[in-house]
Amino acid sequence: MDLNNVFKNNEKWIKDKLAVDSNYFEDLGKGQKPELLYIGCSDSRVTAEDLMGLGPGEVFVHRNIANMVIGTDLNAMSVVDYAVTHLKVNHVVVCGHYACGGVKAAMQSADLGVLNGWLRNIRDVYRIHHNELNAIECEEKKYDRLVELNVKEQCVNLIKTAAVQKAYRDRGLKVHGWVFDVHTGKLIDLKIDFEKYLKDIMEIYHLD
To answer: Which residues are involved in binding Zn(2+) (predicted)?
Structure first.
């Protein structure tokens, strides 16, 4: 990759935007008011705004390996708090994707160094759902199902947070779980039953 091309591409992008709207960058500078927080995977094949057909200012994005929401991850928790409490988004999406390298790596026995601690959280998802997953004979389908279950568990982790609970109570914020199929380009709604999960965990995780 010739990095000089990046700057040439940037110049062309600026010209293209201004050709359509001469105030494009002036409007961008006025601030943001996204309706959606998107938590996705860092995988280079999955571009958040493109797959949703959205542009700058329409979605607040956080990405990490295997789209994790971990309570001790100050980066993710800061993003969630800022988006929900200050930007006042009304929807939070956790979006995984099939053929996720992070999910697959978590199921390998190899020592992956600094990644071990991070991937352990995915292994915990497998542990919770091992009966269902072990019944799937096809390895590819098993990984695909683990991707879906991981998304669901990260949605549950979101629901445990004070920011999400307060926003749900105050303005009806919703949490959604999606999967992006890299083989077809299709975005799949896992139809997470947000209210059911919230009700199930409130006895333990309820915050006033």
So the answer is: 41, 43, 97, 100
Please confirm, yes or no, whether 43 is among the known catalytic residues. yes
- Lowest mean per-residue pLDDT among 8-17, 113-122, 182-191: 113-122
What mean pLDDT value characterizes the chain? 91
SS3 94: strand
- Looking at the structure of the chain, the number of domains it has is 2
Q: Is 100 noted as a catalytic residue in this protein?
A: yes
Which position among 41, 62, 144, 155 bears the catalytic label? 41
Averaged pLDDT, 161-166: 93
Which of the residues 62, 95, 97, 176 is marked catalytic? 97
| 23 assigned to some structural domain | yes
155 is catalytic: no
Contact 143, 96 (CB under 8 A): no
Q: Looking at the domain assignment, is residue 168 inside a domain?
A: yes
Q: What is the pTM of this model?
A: 0.90
Handedness of CA 47, 50, 51, 52 (dihedral sign): positive
Q: Residues 62, 95, 100, 176: which is the catalytic one?
A: 100
Told to judge if 130 belongs to the known catalytic residues of this protein, a careful annotator would answer no
DSSP 140-162: HHHHHHHHHHHHHHHHHHHHTSH
Domain for residue 105, yes or no? Answer: yes
Can you give the residue range of the structural domain that contains 133? 31-202
Query: From the candidates 16, 21, 27, 45, which is the catalytic residue?
Result: 45
Please indicate if the annotation marks 100 as binding a ligand.
yes
